[in-house]
Amino acid sequence: MSDTEYCYHCGTRHPRTEMRQIETKAGKRWRCIKSIEATKRSTAERDTFGKRVSAENKAGAQSKARLMLNSNR
Ligand SMILES: [Zn+2]
User: pTM of the full predicted structure?
Assistant: First the structure.
């Protein structure tokens, strides 16, 4: 009868086929694949963004250092 489970992430029930049972500190809980994937994706995007920003900062610092060297000549 009940083929849905309570999704602790969304606070609603989803069909069990769209969910994963995962271990948490509080025990086994159900979470929908959609929310798991969304979290995974946003984490990956954050990582990519962070890497790009730090690369740009590095490049900026290097060109600034170059400018200072040039002005000393
Ligand atoms: Zn959910």
Answer: 0.62
Helices (H) and strands (E) in the chain, counts: 1, 4
Q: Dihedral angle at the C-alpha atoms of 33, 36, 40, 42, nearest 10 degrees?
A: 110
What token pair was written down for 6? 């309570």
**Distance (Å, whole) CA 56 – CA 23:** 39
CA 59 to ligand 1 center in whole angstroms: 41
What is the Å distance from ligand 1's center to 51 Cα? 30
Distance 43 CA to ligand 1 centre (A): 18
The 10s digit of each residue's pLDDT in 7-17 is 999 999 999 99
Cross-strand partners of 14: 5
- Gap from CA of 13 to ligand 1 centroid (Å): 7
